[in-house]
Design brief:
Shape: globular
Number of strands: 8
Distance between the termini: 55 Å
Helix content: 10-25%
Length: 172
């Protein structure tokens, strides 16, 4: 008597995939095991390779000409991404006054770092309004300086049409 079930080697690729156990490691096209496959909230595999969660951003000459605005968390400013690691907060920016506290009333890490950045530029603002252009290194430093961070600065800075700096610069 001959066995009528198909062996894995004789199955078509779609049949083989449909019968793959859910805990089988994902294998790339080169045969390298890459760990367990990504899964949805219901536990079903999504694909052998899932996209990373963290976005990558890239500076360009085009984005260096765009004025981005912050109007959130009691702060208002105009910001330019002038060079790859040089962001400029234009003179006249309004900074958040009160330091956000943790639930226990202590000052958090972001607020302490924000205070250090503000101390470095203490001669460049008066009564929480900048008196000179301030040069910082990143979108995150801009957020820390203006409103003590606590949110994704890539989504807070936007142009005149409402398009965020993330939309302008995200890669892939």
């Amino acid at each position: 008597m001959q066995d009528t079930s198909q062996s894995p080697a004789s199955q078509s690729p779609s049949q083989a995939l449909s019968h793959t156990p859910t805990d089988t490691p994902a294998v790339s096209s080169t045969g390298v095991t890459t760990g367990t496959p990504a899964r949805t909230s219901t536990g079903t595999p999504t694909s052998a390779f899932s996209k990373g969660a963290k976005a990558r951003h890239r500076w360009s000459r085009e984005v260096s000409t765009v004025e981005f605005h912050v109007d959130a968390f009691e702060s208002k400013a105009t910001v330019l991404w002038r060079k790859r690691n040089e962001m400029v907060i234009r003179r006249g920016a309004v900074m958040r006054r009160d330091v956000p506290l943790n639930k226990d009333g202590s000052i958090g890490f972001s607020a302490r770092f924000s205070q250090a950045i503000r101390a470095e530029h203490s001669g460049e603002y008066e009564d929480y309004v900048t008196t000179a252009d301030i040069v910082l290194k990143s979108v995150n430093e801009v957020g820390l300086f203006l409103y003590f961070g606590g949110t994704n600065g890539w989504l807070v800075l936007h142009d005149d049409q409402g398009r965020t700096i993330h939309d302008w610069t995200v890669v892939g």
